[in-house]
Amino acid sequence: MARFSKIVWVRLTGIGAVIILISATQSDPPVASGPYSLSYPEYFGNRTYMPADNPITKQGVYLGRMLFYETKLSSTNTISCASCHRQSLAFTDGKAFSEGVNGQKADRSSMSLANLLWVKNFFWDGRVKGLEEQAEVPMINPHEMNQSLLVSAAKLSRLKKYRRLFELVYGNDSITAGRIVRAIAQFERTLISSNAPYDQYLRGGYQATTSEMNGMNLFMRIPDSRNNVRGASCGRCHGTPKMFIELFHNNGLDSIPADAGRQKLTGNAIDAGRFRVPTLRNIALTAPYMHDGRFATLEEVVDHYNEHIAASPSLSPLLQNVSNDAEGKTLGLTVNEKKDLVSFLHMLTDSSFIADKRFSDPNKN
Amino acid sequence: MQSPAHAQTPAGQVTIEGDIPKTVVLTAEQFKAMNRITIHSTDMAGKTHDYSGIAVTDILKSAGIIQPAFNRDNLNKYVIVRSSDNYEVLFSMSELDSAFSGRTIILADMADGQPLPLAKGPYKIVIPGEEKRQARSIWSVTHFVIRNSKDQ
Predict the structure, then answer these.
(1) Does position B113 have pLDDT exceeding 60, yes or no?
(2) What does the CA dihedral A38, A40, A44, A47 come to, rounded to 10 degrees?
(3) A127 vs B1: CB contact, 8 Å cut-off?
(4) Where is A346: in which H helix or E strand?
């Protein structure tokens, strides 16, 4: 097979940018190189989390995507990150508890990977800072991919395509744990979901239905029966266009939580049953809901917040004394208001995100 | 697996860190020994409470932070107050200084003679005059992070 290196200079109109295409063999597609330009709406804000020592490059993202879909990173060669984080489900897997190698179950539900660029503390209990540090955990967990990064590095080193890519990204073909997780983190930071009907509404140009508008208003408003303001108060934790505020709150699932959540880390009573508030973007795709996947439908979730909140000393103050009825003990939404709320939640589904080829399995393109 | 950067704060403790010579940890005992003041404030439900605690400027002073009234450089510093639930709120250094703002923002540990309820305690910020919107009346305070607003 003939091998050659070919460098093509291309000038892009208006940018004057240069793309270097390096082709090692005639059959391999060229890998674009250079800084990766992240694109997101102004209303997401710039409070993003990117370490200085892992800037996002096109080649880094390319490698990261390959690793994300690479089953050789598991001890049985059957599970990749994408097994429990499927693009069609906004990078969740439709299960309460995912199964790892040999069918063993994880202890909490797979979280969606949309818009993690804005998240600082990862996992349901926020125990890890940074995507680089997060990536290692499922890979080495015996109930998930069950393979040390040393073994993963050794397996990848046997493959020419990976030696080439690591050299392209890092300057030499040494494959290490750090280089593996940094590439995966780069890819994950590009998973930006910002084109749902709600985004189109925010940018102008989406005609919301009456039900959707009513649902949106209920979502954002705190109820005030004295002034006839109907509300569901969701925005206090799930507000901002990113549809989350990074808080650890106990949302009243149980009076005595089976899973202590953040209390396992801190040992503090105030953290009992506290979990990270995740984004509601694409929520219609990411059932089942909560850290243990106990709710199968959005209707069940709304019912929970409306009338099933369990009291406990660490219950979020934001879920206490919130009612549409004067002296009411529960939220008090009507049947139609609950339907409207669910209509609004469906506005958060970004069908372009789940079909975007840049995030898809490279082995299936 | 825990991140080394993930410092746990035992209940009752407040950490003061950031653009200061040394991180300082204020314990519950030290808090109780400081100069206590009481202010009245109305909550979002319309009820008035007596909040008792320590002026935030006194807490920062105990960590060696000089107020802008005495050091003009500190006019461009700000404080991020963080809660055990990860909520964060920004205050400018000057608005914490009653010499500038005419009001004393306190870190309260008691409301109406009782310790704060668990989910809001042990300490919360009370801002006189900022009762219409209380998004900055952050509860369960664990950290004061001092930062310098220099040009990036």
Answers:
(1) yes
(2) 10
(3) yes
(4) helix A335-346
* Residue of B6, B84, B85 with shortest CB distance to A129: B6
B135 touching A (Cβ < 8 Å) = no
Q: Are A186 and A60 in contact (CB under 8 A)?
A: yes
- Whether A317 sits inside 8 A of B6 (CB atoms) is no
Which chain A residues contact residue B11 at CB under 8 A? 268-270
CA dist A218 and A240 (Å) reads 14
Of A116, A86, A40, A51, nearest to A359 by C-alpha is: A86
Q: Tell the CATH topology of B14-148.
A: Sulfite Oxidase; Chain A, domain 2 (3.90.420)
Does residue B115 sit in helix, strand or coil? strand
Strand, helix or coil at B26? strand
Tokens matching residue B26: 């204020």
Say whether pLDDT at A123 is over 90.
yes
Within 13 Å and on the Cβ side, how many CA atoms surround B55?
Answer: 16
Residue A127 touches partner B, C-beta closer than 8 Å: yes
Mean pLDDT, residues A90-119 taken together: 96
**For B8, which of A129, A265, A321 is closest by C-beta distance?**
A265
Nearest to A190 by CA among A113, A132, A264, A263: A113
For residue A173, CA distances in Å to A157, A220, A225 come to: 8, 51, 65
Mean pLDDT over all residues of chain A?
93
Interface residue B35 vs chain A (CB under 8 A): no
The domains found in chain A, sorted by start residue, are: 42-192 (1.10.760.10), 197-346 (1.10.760.10)
Contacts of A246 in chain B (CB under 8 A): 86
Domain boundaries, chain B: 14-148
Q: Which residue has the higher pLDDT, A9 or A296?
A: A296
Token representation of residue A293: 């996947």
Query: Tens of pLDDT along B60-107?
Result: 999 998 877 778 888 889 999 999 999 999 999 999 998 889 999 999
Q: What is the mean pLDDT of chain B?
A: 90
| Strand partners of residue B101 | none
Amino acid A242 reads K
Nearest by Cα to A261 from A315, A299, A302: A315
